[in-house]
Amino acid sequence: MSSGRPVVHQDYIAKIRYSNALPPPPCPPKLLDIPNTGLSSGQYTSAGFASRLAREQSLNIEADAELGMPIDLVGIPKVFDGDESAIQAMPHPPPLNAADKALMRPPNALGKSTSHVSGATFLRRTEYVTASTTGGSKFESSNSSNTMRLRRKRKQVETSLDDPTNISRHILKGFNIAYPADAYNGQDNAENIRAAESTPEERLAWNKPKHPRNPNLKLLDSYPLLPDWDATPDTGGYMVFKFTAPPINNPLDPSYDPRLDVALLRPAGQTIQDQERYMEDLQAHKLDPTVPPPIARYQFEFFLPSDKSKVRGIKRNFTTHDPTNEADIDFDIAEDDEGQPRKCFKYDNIRTYETSQQVGDPSDTYGDVVALALHDPEKHESEPLRDTKLQKAAYFYPITQRTSLRPRRPGRVDMTEEQPKVDIIEAAGKDPESHERREMYRKRAEGMDIGE
Asked: Biased composition, Polar residues: where in the chain (predicted)?
């Protein structure tokens, strides 16, 4: 017996899971710090919650009319040739000048700052809102309990370690520890800065120094570390040249040749390969200013006096200690342009060298390497070569460049500019003329380019 209910036909629905092969979004989701007050407060179910959330959460990008991308690309060079460098950000933007940092402030930081009272009514028990709430000055009435009370001094704001005044105080502190009799104890002002206070541990470390890794070592002597301003050249630093092979190889006399003390290195131009390498390094420095500026690589001609007996006279003539005493100097005699005899020193061309390796930064003379020379007048007896006397100290000298030289291989070398070979140099020292002094002072004031 069949039922009277109508038959309903249903299609079978199979749930098929499709794999999502799309990669995750490139930027992670932004997590919002929302207080968990629950749904009972009505904060999340109100109509203004989404609008208030959009106002509080600032955008991460600047949304302009074109969304940061100009639509009209006609005026942009090379953009239709596949070169998109003009519409991309610079890989190494130039550092921001300290004077322009104020221009990078956000708009909400501009104008005068206003303080708002939050969480307090205008009057509360007929008392003024305290400074702890408003952030302003605190009002107090005068009575017998606080009129005789000593006001507590304000806590001084901690000085930044990079502040120039703070650096000067700590430099003076080192001098005061070394020379306590010369310490300045007067009034502290902009002209006369007082040194920072030294601790007993710092004074003990100066009076009884110990080796940091071997405390059993005993100090035999100490030298103050001082700069030698009289010996600093006009370029601001020295160049150290190192020969990969001995420049003088005499098997019959293996001792040190004193002519090396007065040797001459004459720049003899650049090769085409060195100039191309310099231009590549210069372009890399322009793209990335953090890379040190390159230094040009040169060929050098090496000159020496013909005889060792000339060394003493050359040192006397090129120093400031009685250089005009020509009777004590053994000069060579040569002819000037007019055929008249003149006194000089003859240097012979030994060989030509090329630059093997070179490092340095002319703009940072003290950041890499400095030369150190210990001088004690009682122990180091030598001929005076300057007017001023040096005290006992360890003198340091700035090094702007370190270059390794190797003998140039025989054969033709392609140079950028062909220069005639110099076989003999006739040199002599003299005081500069008045116009030469003015030119030297002008170059010092304007600054000299060491890389040229």
From this structure: 134-148
Q: What is the pLDDT of residue 434?
A: 77
| Cβ neighbours of 5 (radius 10 Å) | 6
Angle formed at CA 369 by CA 366 and CA 372, multiple of 5 degrees: 95
Q: Is residue 224 within 8 Å of residue 394, measured between CB atoms?
A: yes
Residues of the chain with pLDDT under 50: 117, 127-139, 144, 448-452
Residue 319 sits in the same domain as residue 292: yes
Structure confidence at residue 403 (pLDDT): 92
| Residue 153 within any structural domain of the chain | no
Domain span holding position 200 = 164-220
- In a domain, residue 238? The reply is yes
Inter-CA distances, 341 with 100, 333, 334, 338, Å: 63, 6, 5, 9
Taking only the tens place, the pLDDT of each residue in 80-121 is 788 888 888 887 878 888 888 888 887 777 766 555 545 555
What was the pLDDT predicted at 371?
92
DSSP per-residue codes, 157-226: PPPPTT-HHHHHHHHHHHHHHH-GGG---S---SSSPPPPPPPHHHHHHHHS---SS-TT--------EE
- Final residue of a structural domain among 220, 235, 251: 220
Q: Are residues 291 and 199 in the same domain?
A: no
pLDDT of residue 136: 47
Claim to verify: residue 195 and residue 304 sit in the same structural domain: no
CB 415 within 8 A of CB 377: no
CB 450 within 8 A of CB 403: no
pTM: 0.55
Write down the pLDDT at residue 260.
92
- 213 and 292 co-located in one domain: no
Burial class (CB in 10 A: 0-12, 13-18, 19+), 154: exposed
CA-closest candidate to residue 259, choices 334, 332, 345, 342: 345
Answer for the pair 315, 264: CB distance below 8 angstroms, yes or no. Answer: no
Residue 334, pLDDT score? 82
Backbone angles phi, psi at 401, to 5 degrees: -155, 140
Domain final position from 220, 243, 265: 220
Look at the chain and report how many structural domains it folds into. 2
196 and 324 belong to one structural domain: no
Looking only at Cα atoms, what is the longest distance across the chain? Answer: 151
Phi-psi region of 25 (alpha: psi -120 to 50; beta: other; left: phi over 0): beta
